[in-house]
Amino acid sequence: MAHLTTKGLVLREVNYKESDKILTVLVEGQGKRTVKAQGCRRKNSPLAAASQLLVYSDMTLYDYQDRWSMKEANTLEEFRGLQKDLSRLALGTYFAEVCEAVSEEGLETPGLLPLVLNSLYALDKLGKPEELVKAAFEIKLCCLIGYEPMVDACALCGTEPEEPRFHLAEGVLHCRRCREALAGEGISLPLDRGSLAALRYTAYGDPKRLFSFQLPAESLDILAGVAEGFLLTQLERGFRSLDFYKGLAG
After folding, report:
1. Around Cβ 120, how many Cβ atoms within 10 Å?
2. Degrees to nearest 5, angle at CA 171 with 130 and 222
């Protein structure tokens, strides 16, 4: 029986039998792992806290016949502030669902665990605007999984666009003059100067300073629409947690 001492963030929890849970955990250096937390729902279980959604822990996992079980765990961060704010909790759950969707079992996506941890921290501890954190998370995640946008200049004529637009399917910046040649049937969204600068910053900048920017409300709304549209277009799917989060604002 092999064992692994590592750190991990719970992306999903499902009750199993009378007192267990089946967890999806984003594990440091391991990608996602499906982990059984036996007895974690019993009163005073030492695994109870570490078996909760969006909890980050030191954990010892045992592998028996390709099935992982959590035997020991000590919580490192519970992001307690999110539990007091339904909107931020819903947004954090969306981050977790996206990470589960793009992760592969046992195969690490470099930078993904730090990204989601920093995003949760920005929501919980830094009090950053939800729209800003969400947009930065979506853009940087696309970069990590192979869909880095090309936004340094118009993809066709190479100029700095006077009326910039972003093509969601192609993931490229273009100017108004080149729209017909590039867009085809795809959706192309307009950017203003502030949202374009923020798009470049989040795509190309230091990931440790991912949320260190500010935008006026109008530019932030534009960035948010582009970021969400880009992610959903590239993944070719939606997310229930995103629908729930957006429903709270509706």
Report:
1. 24
2. 35
**How many other β-carbons are positioned within 10 Å of the β-carbon of residue 243?**
11
Tell the residue number behind the tokens 């592998």, with chain if given.
63
Count the neighbouring beta carbons within 10 Å of the beta carbon of residue 147: 16
Q: Which residues pair with 196 in a beta bridge?
A: none
Residue-wise DSSP of 74-142: EEEE--GGGGG-HHHHHHHHHHHHHHHHH-BBTB--TTHHHHHHHHHHHHHTS---HHHHHHHHHHHHH
Q: Quick check: 166 and 172 in contact, CB under 8 A?
A: yes
Q: Using the predicted structure, report yes or no on whether residue 102 has a pLDDT greater than 70.
A: yes
In angstroms, the Cα distances linking 225 to 15, 145, 187 are 35, 20, 12
Task: Dump pLDDT digits (tens) for 118-146.
Answer: 999 999 999 899 999 999 999 999 999 99
Q: How confident is the model at residue 184 (pLDDT cuts 50, 70, 90)?
A: low
CA atoms of 233 and 248, how far apart (whole Å)? 23
Residue with tokens 């009378």: 18
CA distance 162 to 176: 8
Q: For the whole prediction, is pTM greater than 0.70?
A: yes
